[in-house]
Amino acid sequence: MRTIPETLPSSDFLREFPDQQSLAQQLADDVALWLAEGINRRGKASLVVSGGSTPKPFFEVLRKKDLPWEKVYVTLADERWVPAGSPDSTEKLVREHLLNDRMQFVPLYNGAASAREAEAAIEQRLAAMPRPFDAVILGMGEDGHTASLFPGHPALEEGLTTKKLCLAVEDSPKPPPERMTLSAHALESGKRVVIHITGEEKRGLLSRIIESQAASALPIARFINVKKGSFFIFWSA
Ligand code: 6PG
Fold first, then answer.
1. Domain ranges, residue 134
2. What CATH number does the domain containing 102 carry?
3. Which of 11, 28, 101, 234 could be cross-linked to 61 through a Cys-Cys bond (beta carbons 3.0 to 4.6 Å apart)?
4. How many CA within 13 A on the CB side of residue 119?
5. DSSP labels for 170-190?
6. Which atom of ligand 1 is nearest to the CA of 197?
């Protein structure tokens, strides 16, 4: 296990791994445990996952865990507003790398002409999920965005303040431009919130946010919450 070059405070919320595969194993072990706890407590559990390139190895390990998957509801931190068969679709990614035919998947895309038009329908779907979510796994972009909450974007304020569970985002700086995202309120309500990142650049950005101890304008800062046992950063080279 390597030491941290930047001064991210070493504590029980920071989990560092030498490579993506060992991170994937540990994160999948922890998430499986958290889901099992949820099932024991209320008969069902819920998981929010992110898209992008980082989570694939984690998905591949998690899907093989021995769990009563029919009791697990899975949704996305955000979705790109493209048909579910499109190469850009996070639903497609998750169907190929995570879902088995027993998990209860709750898509954020419903085929409506625009994400804006679909907001109320997707809100209803999310409201029917077991909440609080047992685990929320967030990605992060190098600009400090998470889910589809982008720094400086006109939809950011609504995303950070609304009590709704989701909102449409237009003109995303990361393509494709139209998206549906869970709100900060929905994401931070997770019993466990994990920021899952790889690479020095992303670690440096998180270190700087944590060290500054100041309220950062970057969306990811909202989720850096050192409540013992409920917030984790999983990092690998
Ligand atoms: C997406 C998400 C985005 C993603 C981060 C990290 O476009 O899929 O909106 O929030 O999780 O940009 O992506 P990478 O894992 O590809 O770096």
1. 2-236
2. 3.40.50.1360
3. 28
4. 14
5. -S-SSSSS-EEEE-HHHHHTS
6. 15
Q: Whose CA is nearest to atom 7 of ligand 1?
A: 52
Contacts of 124 (CB under 8 A, 6+ apart): none
CB of 20 within 6 A of ligand 1: the answer is: no
Please identify which residue in the block is written with the tokens 């139209």.
178
For the segment 65-112, what is each residue's pLDDT rounded down to a tens digit?
999 999 999 999 999 999 999 999 999 999 999 999 999 999 999 999
Ligand 1 centroid to residue 140 C-alpha, Å: 6
> DSSP secondary structure string, 87-134?
TT-HHHHHHHHT--TTSEE--S----S-HHHHHHHHHHHHHTS-SS-S
Number of domains in the chain: 1
> Measured in whole angstroms, how far is the alpha carbon of residue 106 from the centre of its chain?
14
Assign 195 to helix, strand or coil. Answer: strand
* CA 197 to ligand 1 centroid distance, Å: 10
Query: Residue 225: what pLDDT?
Result: 76
Of ligand 1's listed atoms, the one at least distance from the Cα of 147 is: 10
Are the CB atoms for 116 and 174 separated by under 8 Å? no
Most informative mutation of 81, 140, 235 for ligand 1 (most atoms within 8 A of CB): 140
Q: Read off the pTM.
A: 0.94
